[in-house]
Amino acid sequence: MPEKSPEFWAGVLLALREHGLAMMLTFILSYIRIQLYGDQPSIVRSILEAATGALLVMIIGLAVNAAGLNVAWTLLTSGFIGILGIDQVRALSKRWAERKVEGL
Prior knowledge:
- Pfam families: Phage_holin_3_1 (PF05106).
- InterPro entries: Phage_lambda_GpS_holin.
- The protein has four helices and no strands.
- With 104 residues, the protein is mostly helical.
- The protein has one domain (2-102).
- Helix 1 (6-37) packs across helix 3 (72-84).
- The radius of gyration is 15 Å and the shape is globular.
């Protein structure tokens, strides 16, 4: 089980240290957007959507690092996800993937 390995937790802490600012930015922007537009009926769902956006930014940040790109791409993505929200990002991703599949 990887969660029992100290290397796993060291990697998690390293990712949080590197991408914590972008994750916090996404969480705050998402939460403000949700409260402003009233997208979610309960506070728990609001927090869960904002946290999901923050985790998505961490995953994207790890991919940006693996691709050797600048960390600024992670910050750009965090603002993008925070303002649009998870549902809009999911819809855009689905349309992009469908176009790529049609092109094969």
